[in-house]
Q: What sequence folds into this?
């Protein structure tokens, strides 16, 4: 009697990708902040995609009659420019909306480049051990020895200031984290029986690396990806602010802040809004990252 | 006059899946200088009941009791600072895992002397002298040297001796030992048990020994309380318990002792202790009980009389046979 | 403990050589050769160029040049600034105290507020205080600090007029630097109001630079504390009848500090990165601003020397943190015995 009920319970339990996803969602949705972050992030993605339809003006359109106009609720402001205009009469709101494209673009490119390179290097280091491992990890140690923003800044100085070069520099600075994570995960997975079993039945090395082991190392990598997405946005904005990232008149948020610096005591809105845009985007992604970590980290999972 | 009186102690935890009752109406009276054992499988709420007594449960726990008193002091209404004067001095506890129960960042000496300072107010020299005495008392060689050792530099058995020294440092009237030997090697287990008994005799303190090992019970205790899934299912003198158990669970526990087994295969109790989500409606032991009837599965039993060890069973066992057992099932 | 130190040193030394190699390669990756770079926009004659190339050893094989570079470094020669013609080490040394002063104050602020906030949040898990601290910490962690600095300037300097916008001390005061730390020097000078002026210049940059470390420390303290509070030895401490202050403030904190100290050590690199932005915003005359200025002035030997010195300092501080870590964690201290 008791045994049959146990069997029924096991049979009832759904399996497969869908079930994993729904289990993940049940953990993830427990974290209210993470869900808020997710919805905010989706909103930003939609804004970036449909910027052409949402933005009231073109990002670089100058209105000479409306220089440094305040937001609509202040005296002197008008609804035509809801968040005011900057020093050369461009609509702040439109520039912010178009700016979201750059931030998401930066995040996506930096994360995918550093993730792919980092994972491959980490797999090689963890899989082949020995001299290859030492060599790769020493290089990573060297990269990590420099403060990340400083190294990125110097790299951009070599490559020449532009958005693409800033992204390359940030990707280089970030990928050691992926290498370390992947290597550590591979090392711990390699000792497990399923890897031995796969070896015994003669699975080829490449297949073993990418198909057998890699999927089991994904959890920490996904969390790191979320974290470095937000760091990439912050660093790119910082480089833009220092004049080493996207160049004017690109409506990148950091670059907008750099242009607005001289007006900080005269026109608060040109400084405040780009910063709020960066902060809320980064915050939303970090909230998501925390939720991901809680949902994916089996150590923290409540029984 | 009992030293410790517990009546209808109930502890429940607030969990993600709702309220979970870990200890259900447990009663216990301890006289000065007495050894009482609480027996049960893991998850039966033995430790939780004692932690509740010490006020050591997390805030998610709700503790209720009709009576909870130590030395005539009501522990239900006592102020926290007053409770802290009792625990660790008059009422002390040692735990299952000696390796993790001592703080890895402080020396053994510091951890013992800390108690002496807080409860007895001894000065530095007195504390050191007393700490060495205590370590000697619990059989640690070169006690003076060991004072400056960190827990990770000592073995599990040595750490448990330190824990015992810590617990008896202020001459407690009651020592609660929560599975003190479970995590240790078999050879060390006997030594620690002997040490506890020796100290109990010398100091005339009461000892509550929590264990899941019937062998330990037989060797040490005078009275036994058997606990199952948070409930006390039987209370007896040791002698009576071993010769004439009244609850089917006790009987099954005793049958699974190797030295009492008559057949070639060692009998075991099928199944596990019910958890939060699979608690039976009637008697909690009914899914695993060989005598269970429909009544057992639907109606919660009430304790039998003292002469039957207050067995929590519809058909308390007498000399190996259930009493008042329905005829039709029997045949 | 000594063995532990040697082990750490064994990891750091090869890394340091790697760092020198990066700094060495850096100047060669720039378009144009080093002599052309030095000449800047003025240009120079062919002969002068060739003579300089030989004089500075640039005609030798690269590996030999690297050898010369290392030898120079060993002699304490970190190059000469192209713009000011002064030794890089000297310039660095003159500006370094300003950055240290700022970083130390930022770190003190971060620890002073982050540690207690994380501790209290952990002990009151799930309370309003906990939620507030964790939300603020995540916000601080997500903060673009260059914008945060501008906001503070708008509010405290622009609207309230409480603090100055830039610099280390008001121009009213002048005294010879003794320690290089403005707070201490202003006190030593004995001039009325000098200390207050130095402090009011320092406070905003320190808050800005301390924001991210503060958030990280608060989060790390909370999670370390939560882990430690569920340990058996904390239960033992409570079973001894110790009060909550002693249980949390001594028994739990001592263990929770171990991961927190690691994180504090890792913040040193973050501080340097932050100093680049903070010093730029507040015109703080430290090495962060100097690095940015050097990059813009194309003073590449200054950038090269600065890069190397900063990396070396970060590594040394991390080594010191590792040793401190060994001191408070007896388990590490005894691994070699």
A:
């Amino acid at each position: 009697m008791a045994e049959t009920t146990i069997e029924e319970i096991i049979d009832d339990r759904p399996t497969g990708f869908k079930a994993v996803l729904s289990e993940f969602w049940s953990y993830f949705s427990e974290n209210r902040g993470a869900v808020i972050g997710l919805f905010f992030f989706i909103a930003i993605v939609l804004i970036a995609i449909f910027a052409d339809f949402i933005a009231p003006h073109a990002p670089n359109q100058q209105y000479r009659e409306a220089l440094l106009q305040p937001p609509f609720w202040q005296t002197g402001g008008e609804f035509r420019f809801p968040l005011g205009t900057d020093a050369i009469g461009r609509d702040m709101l439109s520039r912010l909306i178009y700016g979201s494209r750059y931030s998401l673009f930066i995040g996506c490119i930096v994360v995918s480049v550093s993730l792919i390179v980092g994972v491959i290097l980490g797999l090689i280091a963890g899989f082949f051990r020995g001299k290859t491992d030492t060599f790769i990890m020493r290089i990573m140690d060297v990269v990590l020895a420099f403060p990340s923003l400083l190294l990125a800044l110097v790299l951009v100085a070599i490559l020449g200031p532009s958005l693409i070069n800033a992204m390359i520099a940030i990707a280089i600075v970030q990928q050691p984290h992926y290498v370390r994570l992947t290597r550590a995960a591979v090392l711990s997975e390699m000792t497990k029986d399923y890897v031995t079993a796969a070896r015994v039945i003669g699975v080829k090395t490449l297949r073993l690396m990418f198909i057998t082991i890699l999927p089991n190392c994904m959890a920490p990598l996904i969390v790191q990806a979320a974290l470095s997405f937000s760091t990439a946005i912050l660093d790119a904005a910082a480089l833009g602010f220092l004049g080493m990232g996207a160049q004017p008149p690109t409506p990148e948020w950091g670059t907008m802040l750099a242009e607005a610096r001289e007006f900080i005591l005269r026109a608060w809105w040109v400084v405040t809004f780009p910063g709020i845009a960066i902060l809320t985007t980064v915050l939303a992604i970090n909230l998501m990252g925390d939720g991901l970590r809680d949902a994916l980290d089996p150590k923290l999972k409540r029984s | 006059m009992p030293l410790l009186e517990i009546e209808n102690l109930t502890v429940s935890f607030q969990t993600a899946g709702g309220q979970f009752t870990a200890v259900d109406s447990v009663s216990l009276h301890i006289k000065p200088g007495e050894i009482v054992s609480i027996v049960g499988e893991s998850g039966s709420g033995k430790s939780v009941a004692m932690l509740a007594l010490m006020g050591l449960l997390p805030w998610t726990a709700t503790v209720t009791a009709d009576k909870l008193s130590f030395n005539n002091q009501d522990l239900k209404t006592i102020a926290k600072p007053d409770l802290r004067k009792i625990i660790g001095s008059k009422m002390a506890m040692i735990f299952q895992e000696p390796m993790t129960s001592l703080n890895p960042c402080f020396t053994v000496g510091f951890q013992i002397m800390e108690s002496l300072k807080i409860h007895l107010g001894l000065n530095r020299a007195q504390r050191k002298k007393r700490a060495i005495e205590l370590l000697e008392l619990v059989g640690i060689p070169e006690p003076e040297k060991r004072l400056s050792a960190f827990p990770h530099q000592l073995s599990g058995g040595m750490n448990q001796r330190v824990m015992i020294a810590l617990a008896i440092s202020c001459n407690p009237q009651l020592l609660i030992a929560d599975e003190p030997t479970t995590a240790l090697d078999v050879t060390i287990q006997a030594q620690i048990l002997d040490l506890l008994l020796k100290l109990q005799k010398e100091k005339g303190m009461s000892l509550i020994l929590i264990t899941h090992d019937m062998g330990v019970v037989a060797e040490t205790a005078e009275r036994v309380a058997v606990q199952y899934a948070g409930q006390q299912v039987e209370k007896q003198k040791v002698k009576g318990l071993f010769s004439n158990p009244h609850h089917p669970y006790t009987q099954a526990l005793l049958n699974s002792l190797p030295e009492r087994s008559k057949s070639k295969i060692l009998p075991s109790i099928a199944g596990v202790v019910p958890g939060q989500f699979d608690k039976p409606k009637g008697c909690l032991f009914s899914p695993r009980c060989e005598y269970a009837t429909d009544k057992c599965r639907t109606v919660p039993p009430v304790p039998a009389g003292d002469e039957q060890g207050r067995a929590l069973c519809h058909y308390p066992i007498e000399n190996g046979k259930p009493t008042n057992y329905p005829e039709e099932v029997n045949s | 403990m000594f063995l532990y130190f040697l082990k750490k040193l064994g990891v750091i030394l090869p890394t340091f050589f790697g760092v020198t190699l990066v700094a060495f390669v850096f100047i060669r990756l720039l378009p144009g050769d080093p002599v052309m770079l030095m000449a800047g926009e003025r240009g120079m004659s062919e002969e002068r160029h060739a003579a300089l190339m030989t004089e500075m050893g640039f005609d030798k094989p690269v590996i030999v040049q690297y050898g010369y570079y290392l030898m120079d470094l060993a002699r304490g020669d970190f190059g000469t600034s192209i713009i000011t013609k002064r030794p890089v080490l000297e310039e660095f040394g003159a500006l370094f105290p300003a950055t240290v002063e700022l970083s130390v104050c930022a770190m003190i602020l971060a620890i002073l507020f982050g540690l207690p906030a994380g501790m209290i949040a952990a002990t009151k898990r799930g309370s309003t205080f906990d939620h507030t601290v964790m939300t603020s910490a995540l916000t601080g962690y997500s903060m673009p600090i260059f914008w945060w600095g501008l906001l503070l300037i708008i509010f405290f300097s622009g609207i309230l007029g409480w603090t100055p916008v830039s610099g280390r001390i008001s121009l009213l005061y002048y005294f010879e630097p003794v320690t290089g730390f403005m707070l201490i020097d202003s006190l030593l000078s004995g001039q009325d109001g000098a200390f207050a002026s130095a402090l009011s210049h320092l406070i905003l940059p320190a808050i800005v630079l301390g924001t991210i470390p503060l958030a990280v420390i608060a989060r790390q303290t909370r999670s370390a504390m939560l882990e430690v509070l569920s340990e058996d030895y904390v239960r033992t401490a409570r079973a001894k009848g110790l009060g909550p202050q002693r249980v949390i403030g001594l028994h739990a904190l001592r263990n929770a500090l171990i991961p927190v100290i690691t994180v504090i050590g890792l913040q040193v690199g973050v501080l340097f990165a932050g100093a680049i932005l903070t010093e730029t915003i507040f015109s703080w005359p430290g090495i962060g601003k100097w690095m940015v200025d050097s990059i813009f002035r194309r003073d590449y030997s200054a950038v090269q020397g600065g890069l190397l010195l900063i990396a070396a300092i970060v590594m040394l501080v991390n080594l010191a943190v590792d040793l401190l870590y060994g001191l408070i964690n007896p388990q590490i201290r005894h691994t070699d015995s």
Summary: The mean pLDDT of chain B is 86. The first helix of chain B runs from residue 46 to 54.
